[in-house]
Amino acid sequence: MQLTLTNHRSGNVVIIACQGRIITGEETRALQAEVERLTLASKNVVLDLAGIAFIDSSGLGSLVRLRGVLRASRGDLKLCNTSSFVYRVLEATNLLQLFPAFASEHDAIRDFSAPAHAADSKSSAPKHKILCVDTSADLLAFLNALIDRLGYETFTSKHLSDAVLMLKVRKPHLVICGPGIRAPSSHRCPPAVRVHSWVPTIVVSLTR
Q: Which domain range does residue 88 map to?
């Protein structure tokens, strides 16, 4: 089922109703293009996800990236009418703090007028460092948001050469290799990463 998008406005808020699925590829590109097209004037967006039957990690990463872009322009991205599947995914990935699930479009729009919440207090204790490497910016955004919510310090890289440099300089405690960066015909990280044998590695595989 492809992603279909319809939109309307309420004051300075753009509401986009999504139907289908939000997954890596054409669907995430379509959503990003629609948000960019509709937010030339206003950067406040509500996504109505009542019609979303499935969302993968790249889809979540796309939402995280869109939220970051809008907030950098003094706007925001809010979700409403989340389907039961989407709600369970947000809950399982600890992203409900990032994307509170509003029960209705009205509630989400009204929240744009609410006082800004105080920033979460950050612990001064040293954090374990995790390096995430993949060619997909959406997957990296998802991993970064997820790992940050778990209290770890995260570094990301789309390029293997940069990742190798980060290994030497940042000295992470763990490396996560996405499917776009793993060794060909293998479920292992590339040799350039594995050569640093003191760092444990995890390989992420995506399935639909």
A: 4-111
**Do the Cβ atoms of 62 and 83 come closer than 8 Å?**
no
Q: How many domains does one find in the chain?
A: 2
How far is residue 53's CA from residue 21's CA, in Å, rounded to a whole number?
6
pLDDT (tens digit per residue) in 24-82 = 899 999 999 999 999 988 899 999 999 999 999 889 999 999 998 999 899 999 999 99
Residue corresponding to tokens 């040799």: 191
Asked if the structure places residue 173 within a domain, the reply is yes
Instruction: State which of 111, 138, 164 marks the end of a domain.
Output: 111
Assess if residue 124 is contained within a domain: no
Q: What is the pTM of this model?
A: 0.71
Contact 65, 43 (CB under 8 A): no
Please state, in angstroms and rounded to a whole number, the distance separating the CA atoms of residues 48 and 76. 14
User: β-strands 76-80, 101-102: how paired?
Assistant: parallel
